[in-house]
Design a protein that fits this description.
Helix content is about 40%, strand content about 15%. The chain has 9 helices and 6 strands; from the N terminus they run ββααααααβαβαββα.
Length: about 260
């Protein structure tokens, strides 16, 4: 059995991978950890070290780190711009069992959750889920603020002398999942597509997309170039992510903006 928990900017997901006959155990484990966690002090304190490791992994994953910086810059100090990981220092002081439980009481409830099973009988899954919730006493959802994201824009620059490659992300605000422009923006991303400068090719690789033809095939100094389209409930980011050698940074920006101006 493998399990984990992933946090996004608008959701949290618990997942388990196991043999089908262990479905009764899986449903109880997931529901118990979501609605009835014990949050023992020694467990919470042990997580402080894991958070520091998570920060190290984030900075080691350049693509993910650039995406995190892009969000923090686009929505500076609000909603979607808040860091996914607790900042080292003062934030870790508030990483306590009581605070975590208060957060879960405010946001976690059966009405705000979905349960999905893959390659498992629907009726069997529902049966064990009903049993897992048998002792659950519903607590009225507490009122909570749902502030709208405020797009601030701006720029963020970080220098690392140990990295020969320059990574640049240029993003623009979109209106989110419920926008009438969702489909056109998605089509634009597909039209631009992109990838790395070295690829084995083959059907479906996007070798004839605009960024492959106009950027990667024409500019040997570009290591990779791709369009991105990240959507949330009431805002989003569309733009371009381009990488190349550090001394080419101004040229990389010009190349990316030139392709965006052609749209």
């Amino acid at each position: 059995m493998n399990g984990g928990c992933q946090a996004g900017r608008e959701h949290m997901m618990y997942n388990l991978e196991l043999l089908r006959e262990y479905t009764p155990v899986a449903s109880t484990l997931v529901v118990g950890n979501v609605l009835f966690p014990r949050l023992l002090p020694w467990e919470v304190n042990a997580c402080h070290k894991e958070i520091r490791k998570a920060h190290e992994r984030l900075k080691a994953d350049t693509d993910q780190y650039v995406s995190e910086l892009l969000h923090q810059t686009a929505y500076h100090n609000n909603t979607l711009g808040n860091a996914l990981l607790a900042n080292e220092g003062r934030a870790l002081e508030h990483f306590t069992g009581d605070n975590i439980r208060e957060y879960m009481m405010k946001h976690f409830s059966a009405e705000r959750s979905v349960f999905v099973g893959i390659n498992v009988d629907h009726d069997e899954l529902c049966k064990w889920l009903m049993r897992s919730f048998a002792e659950y006493v519903a607590i009225p959802n507490l009122p909570r603020e749902e502030p709208k994201p405020i797009y601030t824009g701006g720029y963020k620059l970080e220098e690392n002398a140990d990295m020969p490659v320059c990574n640049i992300a240029i993003g623009f605000e979109t209106e989110g999942w419920n926008s009438a422009d969702l489909v056109p923006v998605t089509v634009l991303q597909t039209l631009l597509s992109g990838g790395g400068s070295f690829s084995t090719g083959g059907p479906g690789k996007g070798m004839h997309s605009r960024l492959y033809l106009n950027v990667l095939n024409q500019n040997p100094n570009v290591e990779s170039c791709m369009a991105f389209n990240t959507q949330y409930s009431d805002s989003g980011l569309f733009g371009m992510y381009i990488t190349g050698y550090g001394q080419e940074a101004p040229r990389l920006v010009d190349i990316a903006l030139n392709e965006l101006h052609k749209l």
